[in-house]
Amino acid sequence: MLAWYLSGEADHELSQKIEASWREQGTLPQSEWGKEAVFGKVQAEITAQSDHIPEQKLIHLVDSRYKPRFWAYAAALLLLSVTSYAFYFMLSGQEQEAAPLTTAPSPQQDIEIVKQTAYGEKMTITLADSTVIRLNSGSQLRYRADASREVFLEGEAFFDVSPDTLQPFLIHTANITTTVLGTSFNIRAFAEDEKIAVSVVTGEVQVAQQKNTPDKIVRLVPGEQAMYDRKVTSMVKGKFDYENVLSWKEGRLHFKNARFSDIEQTLERWYGVDIEVRHPGIENGFSGSYNRRSLESVLEGMSFVLEFEFEIQDKKVIIL
Predict the structure, then answer these.
(1) What fold characterizes domain 107-244?
(2) pLDDT tens for each residue of 259-273
(3) How far apart are CA 19 and CA 102, in angstroms?
(4) Rounded to an integer, what distance in angstroms lies between the CA atom of residue 29 and that of residue 200?
(5) What's this model's pTM, rounded to 2 decimal places?
(6) How far is CA 164 from CA 63, 150, 180, 182, 303, in A?
(7) Looking at the domain covering 251-319, what would its CATH class be?
(8) Hey, where are the domains in the chain?
(9) Pairing state between β 169-173 and 150-160
(10) 209 with 229: CB under 8 angstroms?
């Protein structure tokens, strides 16, 4: 084949053969069309043509008198081979562009999103289905990046769920699951609390324990609350005080007959401080309301009623 290239006839004949073979596809069955047919036919004809070049002519061409020309022809042969293969793969590329495209699932759909608030911080979250969640201090919410209506809560949050009668909204907290179609309600489920409270403002909510048996399911309407006791793993339904449960999302601290240990935890989350109680015994059953007040102002009011003194040292509060 090298001799045929060196004979000087290669350039003209190769281009003619490619063009003729390409035109001939119009008369072939459709199954024989394509780049493989063209390239295979041309290659076969090139091989046959090169076999007719006498060996003596090849030897003569590479005689020492033609060595410079031989290397020039060899370079030309390499270039011509590359050009032929480029033509072949150009046809391949045209076919790939014409093939139908498929879209792979986005990896973003499997990503879990975690929203967390530090002590002294609150956050408002809007999900893909337009559900709005107000996250209280020291709380965490987990959910997937797609439009799935399912979240996992630790801490406290107020939910305003976008209605969807075909796909319920699920909230998982410890050993209970709250199911809604479209409503507003509050869930309090801090890890250190003995009880989990689900309080409904609008719509209807179903609260189920992990085993999900009929006697473990409670249905709630506005004004009703389900209280789940972690220790005895039981749940009771009753009424709740709107101001006591929901004032936090309006920026108000509200206590009603509260134990001081509960007040201490609330102040730590609300203001992002650490409270150390050195007072021998502070009376429980405190009631009071504070609207967007500073920590010092709140403690001054409490200390007057409960008869204690306090010191604020940066992020540390000492009750004396």
Answers:
(1) Jelly Rolls (2.60.120)
(2) 999 999 999 999 999
(3) 34
(4) 73
(5) 0.65
(6) 88, 13, 9, 6, 49
(7) alpha beta
(8) 2-98, 107-244, 251-319
(9) parallel
(10) no
